[in-house]
User: Fold this.
Amino acid sequence: MAEIPAAGRNPGGVEVDRAAIRDAVANWALWRDSGRFQDLRNLYTADAIVHTTWFVGAATEFIERSSRGGGRSQHFVGAIAVELNGERAIAEARAMLLVRAVLQAVEVDVTCYLRFYDWFLRQGGRWLIQRRNGIYEKDRLDPVDPSKTISLDPAELARYPAGYRHIAYVQASGGAKITPNLPTPGSAELARLYEEGNAWLTRG
Assistant:
C-alpha cells in the first residue's frame, strides 16, 4: 500500500518515522538480552500484547517474567520492512533466536529462525509497539559438546509445529506451557495474521 503520512506531517517525515520504527525493533533485541528492562518497557503501549512460543499476554507481564529468566537467550534482528498509515505502522523483521539450555543433563543450543511482526502506534510523538507476533520459520537443536548425544521423543516432538518444534520441546521440558498454532510459513494462521494486520493498518 502507499505510504500515507499522518495529518500535518510532510512526506519527509515518513522516512523519519520509518527510521524510528526500525530503531525500536533493533533496540528491543539489545535491551531484552542485556537486561535493560525499563528501556524495554518504554517500547510498548500501556495495553500492549505479546505472542511467543511460551507466553501470550500483556507486555508488562512478559517483561517481568523475562527479567526473572536469566541471560541465556539472544535475539538477532536483520532486515526490517515498515508499512505506514498515519499514526499506525506494521514492521516485519527477520530475526534469529539463540537459546542455551540443559536437556537430559546435556547442554544444548537451540537456533530458531523467525520474523517479528510488530503493530506500532504513534503516541506522544513516539512509535510504540501495541502488539508483537512471531512468525516461526524453522529451528534446530545441537549439543554444545559435539561428543554428547541426546535422544528426543518423536511423539513429543511431533506435537509442535515444524517451525518451532525444537525450541518448544526444550521450553516444555523446563515446564513452559507452549502456545499452539503460531504462524509458520504457508500456514492458515499466517494468512489470518496478515489479513488482520492489513485490516488494522488500513483503518488508521
